[in-house]
């Protein structure tokens, strides 16, 4: 981790109580200082090994990307891959998504990616789902007007749940497909590692956009 400080912006929690941290602590990022430009900023929550954002960063050098991942071992791999590729438009936060507001300035993100978030089907864990009302309210403070959440999942149940939550939170849902790889959106799709595994198992991939009104 010490060898990756050039791309790591934050690590851990400012305090044990995440609700208190989100409401009290502010370590807001200065994008101009971090990236050296005023390019638009996009965010992936749960970046895993970084394969998706590495490809995005290569394809879109005029966009800056923030990658959030809680698992230290996983984010370490993503950071090492980014540094090996000498990509200058990706930075990482090794933090829980609950405290994004500590670091991300309000209404500063153009797009949020949720790629294969854990569905957490147990009713008792609904508040932990990354498309629950709890998290959508956080995203609304981060997104610019007209900003977009792009979601992909292999879970049809989680997909249906997410769409209902977007609509309840005041987002407009569009670009819906329940078979991404055989849809009009397939040509621009970046296949993640999880996605490749699910597809190999014969699972169709669901995808949608939620636009902040």
Task: Walk me through what this model shows.
This protein is an alpha/beta fold and 213 residues long. 31% of the residues lie in helices and 24% in strands. The protein contains seven helices and eight strands. Strands 1-4-3-2-5-6-8-7 form an eight-stranded mixed beta sheet, with helices on both faces. The N and C termini lie far apart (39 Å).
The succession of helices and strands, N to C, reads: EHHEHEHEEHEHEHE
CATH superfamily: Vaccinia Virus protein VP39
Strand line-up across the major sheet: 1-4-3-2-5-6-8-7
Number of domains: 1
How much is the radius of gyration in Å? 16 Å
CATH topology: Rossmann fold
> How many H/I helical runs?
7
Query: So what's the overall shape?
Result: globular
Give me some keywords for this one.
alpha/beta, Rossmann fold, 7 helices, 213 residues
Summary, kept brief:
This protein has seven helices and eight strands; from the N terminus they run βααβαβαββαβαβαβ.
Indicate the topology.
Blueprint: E1 8-11, H1 18-24, H2 31-35, E2 41-45, H3 51-59, E3 64-68, H4 72-84, E4 90-94, E5 109-115, H5 133-142, E6 143-153, H6 156-168, E7 171-177, H7 193-200, E8 206-212
Parallel strand pairs: 1-4, 2-3, 2-5, 3-4, 5-6
Antiparallel strand pairs: 6-8, 7-8
